């Protein structure tokens, strides 16, 4: 959530400089969100067993056995959106 919150600086910066929010703004924000979910999932994969014990619902648990595939797709999407 913190990484996505930092991403809100993208439309804020666009609005401050150009007083508009063009498509490039939203594509960059979407790239930021994909990148954030990818790296957050990688970090969560290390703690998966502990998260299950205490009941934390991380993306690593949500993605299950497809976690590596989804992280790869998110990273690919990030590159495409940039």
Automatic annotation (TrEMBL):
One GO term of the biological process aspect: ubiquinone biosynthetic process
GO CC terms: plasma membrane
Bilayer topology term: Multi-pass membrane protein
Subcellular location: Membrane
Transmembrane annotation, as ranges: 20-39
Organism listed in the record: Serratia marcescens
Cell inner membrane recorded as keyword: yes
Keyword Lipid biosynthesis: no
GO molecular function: 4-hydroxybenzoate polyprenyltransferase activity
Similarity comment text for this entry: Belongs to the UbiA prenyltransferase family.
Keywords: Cell inner membrane, Cell membrane, Membrane, Transferase, Transmembrane, Transmembrane helix, Ubiquinone biosynthesis
Gene: ubiA
Name under which the protein is recorded: 4-hydroxybenzoate polyprenyltransferase
Cofactor: Mg(2+)
EC code: 2.5.1.39
Lineage: Bacteria, Pseudomonadati, Pseudomonadota, Gammaproteobacteria, Enterobacterales
Major localisation: membrane
PANTHER family: 4-HYDROXYBENZOATE POLYPRENYLTRANSFERASE, MITOCHONDRIAL (PTHR11048:SF28), PRENYLTRANSFERASES (PTHR11048)
């Amino acid at each position: 959530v913190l990484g996505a919150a930092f991403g809100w600086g993208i439309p804020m910066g666009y609005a401050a400089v150009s007083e508009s929010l063009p498509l490039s703004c939203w594509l960059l924000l979407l790239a930021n969100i994909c990148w954030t979910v990818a790296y957050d999932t990688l970090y969560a994969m290390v703690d998966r067993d502990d998260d299950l014990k205490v009941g934390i619902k991380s993306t690593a648990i949500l993605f299950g056995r497809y976690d590596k595939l989804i992280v790869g797709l998110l990273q690919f999407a990030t590159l495409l959106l940039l």
